[in-house]
Request: fold
Amino acid sequence: MKAPGQVPSVDASAGNRSVQLSWRTPATGGAVNSYVVSAPGMSSKVVSSGRHSTTVDGLTNGVEYRFSVTARNRVGSGPEALANPVTPTGDVPGIPMAVQATANPSDGSVLVKWTPPLDQGPGITNYKVIASSANGDQSFDANLAKSLTLPKGTLTYGDAYAITVVAEGAATASPPSAPSQVTPYTVPDQPVVSAGAVTATSVTFTWPKPNENGKPLSGYTATVNGVAQQVTPDQTSLNVPNLAPGASASISLVARNEAGDSQPGAATGKASNPPPQISRVNESSGGYTQVAISFTVDWGAGAPGGTCAITLNGKKISSCTGGSATVPKASTNYDYKVVATSSTGLTANASGTVQSTVFTITNSCDNAEPGGDCGLGILQNVPQSDPDHGPPNKGKLGKGASASAECYGIGYQSQTGNQVDEHKSENGGKGRQSTYWIYIPNAGGGYVVGAYLEQSDDQLNNLPRC
Reply:
């Protein structure tokens, strides 16, 4: 804590054997506990910190006085502030009567009216209106008028004022009139509204609490897209829900107190319009003859769902989670495409391939004839007669080699003879017999004989038929 600063100004007015003094609170330094009024050759007068004026009586008319006012607290005293020189006189105007101060809440002004004194004394040259509050005194000249309007903002809204009027003559002034109490107030300040957080279906408007201007807020009227609603005085935001993505919302916000409605504050916001996003596409096989995909669509925060179209191996599927399709071949890649369309027509695409379950065959020929290599010929078509007398091979599936099988056909019944050890004893020593011919993509695609494969006919029958 520190000592108070200097009192900003001290005004002195002469009376009959008295002097009226008024001053304001220091703008700097520590808090004031009291004021000391002094003049040369006189005892000091102590005035409490809540007052900002005093009358010094018992003076001699015709003698000039120069008073000073010092603010003090327990730490010490501030610098001395001198008043203007003043000379008491018996030629003092009378006291103004019937002073009435009235607050006008419509524009925030204060109207002060009074009746001139019956005793005009040496002649009145000016009426001084003094507004006294806990923060000090303010004085205003009215010249010779009988009323004075203190405009909006001149006095502090919500502060209690004692209004007095002094009649001033050429050399002296009357004592102050009886006070009239008034507390100025007016409508709240215009709210400052802005559009804050948005989602695809909502806009949130926010505002700081406006200045109440002397009377507490009783609430707001918010008109959103032409529809009015009441808002509590402690609220500083309003969410507007149920908008379409990309739709606008406008607000007109009026604050209200005892004086009436403020000027409206306005703002406009727009809901977001996010495009959909396709994520986490999972590709899976449902077997040798079925493929499937699943996926997730993010429509955006708060956005309503849209529609999805899936094309999978030429099949059209309407689903926003996934779908499956029957396919003609095992071990084969099939194209898919997903198109997600939002409620506002924005789209997202995802595409790729999904493979049916791989069926692996293995050439189990292990006992080649002299000069042979145990390679299985790859034929362009399923033979219906001994292929050894048909078209030449497109290529060969070598001894012990494996390939991905896609489908099977039924044709000429072949047998292994002594070419596969494990089947030599079958069919009276003729070996394994089979009418299955398996399509593989090797050598541009063609069929190999089923009898020489490691897989049995029962296993080969799991493949789709070509």
In short: The two ends are 100 Å apart (CA to CA). The helical segments are 457-460.
